[in-house]
Automatic annotation (TrEMBL):
Gene3D superfamilies: Aldolase class I (3.20.20.70), nicotinate phosphoribosyltransferase (3.20.140.10). It comes from Bombilactobacillus mellis. Belongs to the NAPRTase family. Pathway: Cofactor biosynthesis; NAD(+) biosynthesis; nicotinate D-ribonucleotide from nicotinate: step 1/1. Transmembrane segments: none annotated. Keywords: Glycosyltransferase, Ligase, Phosphoprotein, Pyridine nucleotide biosynthesis, Transferase. One of its GO terms (biological process) is NAD+ biosynthetic process via the salvage pathway. This is Nicotinate phosphoribosyltransferase. The keyword Transferase applies. One of its GO terms (cellular component) is cytosol. One of its GO terms (molecular function) is nicotinamide phosphoribosyltransferase activity.
Length: 473
């Protein structure tokens, strides 16, 4: 793993240098949260924590890094010594990967010496924003696919190697089943998947001999690409011929892939041809710039699709290419006490929620149904409360008090124990399954792909009072 301590905006170092001068060892609390869900969706699937943890476990500066810093002539030797001796002293709490999360709630909190905590901003956001974005997109596509597997095919179209590698991991957290990206498959223990490219068919004198050569090499997992010349006139008939030859030799033919044309009509007609030939177990995979809308439409058209191969629109989240997670100061120590801080912007949407906080998911008693999240002050205990008064946490909406009773509150943020080798779960399919369980707990209307209901994210009355008091002063 590369140490990415320098993958940070210059100003973080400039501030850290200043904090070492003026506020050495002063404790501060920062929150990571986002304000808007991509694609006008109802929720984001949190991802990236494993890579964040790995980076923080190895956050240090080499002699070469320090030489480079020295050459910039921006900071003094004391600061370079501080970097040379850097040992993470921050406490970090975070929502687990795969957790469905909502705007404004703290998802990662970093508490520690301000110079250290400030230095982590850019890298934490870079990883969290990227992986959560792709996990969220993958969740949308998985939901649209209604249980049919999604194969991640995006490496060639991802924005560079890291986006392919970690984007694939995030795509699995969001629901993808396999990947064509061998590096991601090896690194994250994801099943590999793949068919063939048009070049294979073009490289041989004709389609039939290209299929036969492939079948001879891979008799038990031959997936033939049938759209190089003509799907119905040539590709599928040739595939049927080769599959019947394979069957005669005792093999079980795998499938075909269609990558162009009217997918609904081509899959229907191909399915009919395969079935007529007795090849009912041959699977149909489709690809070609698929997204959640096309998948929904194809399934509405009753297209008999078994697998979706999805590249560019998943790995780049091209319809919504940014998750704008931010890292904001919530509190800073003065005379041994944490003083809540707020950013009051001209833009009301950018108002921050001050102070050290906790987040709870509230469930109806005796059910596994979640009905709201509540942001509370760190010293408010909702687990043992029977009745709380809350207001909408969105400053752009009416903040009328609401009384909540008969709930069970579960904290969402969990402290990371850096004394362990693996402070967070690393099995991506276990994370995917847990994520699905958490999604199952949410109201169905909040999970619609279009115009979802807004899942309530409240703040406690006490937190709202603190916010108002700080705005007033
Ligand atoms: N029946 C269908 N309903 C909805 N969308 C479809 C249907 N068939 C194909 N599509 C989608 O429409 C888009 C355009 O398909 P089309 O075959 O015209 O693609 P193309 O990119 O021009 O083809 P090619 O890959 O051959 O260049 C693709 O994203 C494809 O997935
Ligand atoms: O469309 P995506 O969702 O990104 O899926 C992956 C695409 O990658 C391959 O295309 P290739 O690079 O061979 O180019 P093509 O557009 O000519 O098919 C494959 O045939 C898919 O079309
Ligand atoms: O294996 C495939 O079919 C594949 C892999 C990457 C991109 N497109 C297709």
């Amino acid at each position: 793993m590369k140490n990415l301590a320098l993958l940070t905006d210059l100003y973080e170092y400039s501030m850290a240098n200043g904090f070492q001068h003026y506020l050495p060892q002063t404790r501060a609390v920062f929150d990571v949260f986002f304000r808007k869900v991509p694609d006008k969706g109802g929720l984001v699937v949190a991802a990236g924590l494993q890579q964040i943890v790995e980076q923080l476990q190895d956050f240090n500066f080499s002699a070469d890094d320090l030489e480079y810093f020295r050459s910039l002539k921006l900071w003094d030797e004391d600061f370079l010594q501080f970097l040379a001796n850097f040992k993470l002293e921050c406490q970090i709490s975070a929502v687990p990967e795969g957790m469905p999360v909502f705007p404004r709630e703290p998802l990662i909190t970093v508490s520690g010496p301000i110079a250290q905590a400030q230095l982590l901003e850019t890298l934490i956001l870079n990883i969290f924003n990227h992986q959560s974005l792709i996990a969220t997109k993958s969740r949308r596509m998985t939901q649209a696919a209604q249980g049919k597997p999604i194969m991640e095919f995006g490496a060639r179209r991802a924005q560079g190697p890291d986006s392919a590698l970690y984007g694939t991991r995030a795509a699995v957290i969001g629901g993808a089943s396999s990947t064509s990206d061998v590096l991601a498959a090896k690194k994250f223990h994801i099943p590999t998947a793949g068919t063939m490219a048009h070049s294979w068919i073009e490289a041989f004198p004709d389609e039939l001999s290209a299929f036969r050569k492939w079948a001879a090499l891979y008799p038990d997992n031959a997936a033939l690409l049938v759209d190089t010349y003509d799907v119905l006139q040539s590709g599928v008939p040739h595939a049927i011929q080769v599959f019947q030859e394979l069957q005669a030799q005792g093999h079980q033919p795998l499938g075909i892939r269609i990558d162009s044309g009217d997918i609904a009509s081509l899959t229907q007609k191909s399915r009919a041809l395969l079935d007529e030939a007795g090849l009912t177990s041959v699977k149909i995979t489709i690809s070609n710039a698929l997204d959640e809308n096309i998948i929904t439409s194809l399934l509405q058209q009753q297209a008999p699709i078994d697998n979706f191969g999805i590249g560019e629109k998943l790995i780049t989240s091209s319809s919504a290419p940014v998750l704008s997670g931010v890292y904001k100061l919530a509190a800073i120590e003065q005379n041994g006490q944490l003083i809540p801080k707020i950013k009051v912007s001209n833009d009301l949407a950018k108002l921050t929620i001050p102070g050290p906080k906790k987040v709870y998911r509230l469930y109806y008693e005796h059910t596994q149904e979640a009905f709201a999240d509540v942001i509370a002050l760190a010293d408010e205990d909702l687990i043992h409360s029977e009745r709380i008064t809350v207001v909408n946490s969105n400053p752009l909406q009416l903040q009328k008090p609401v009384v909540l009773t008969n709930f069970v509150a579960q904290p969402l943020l969990h402290p990371l124990d850096f004394s362990q080798k693996h402070p967070v779960p690393t099995d991506v399919f276990a994370i995917q399954r847990t994520s699905q369980r958490w999604l199952d707990e949410l109201p169905i209307e909040t999970k619609r792909l279009t115009n979802p209901d807004i899942y309530p994210v409240y703040m406690t009355e006490a937190l709202n009072k603190l916010q108002k008091d700080l705005i007033a002063h």
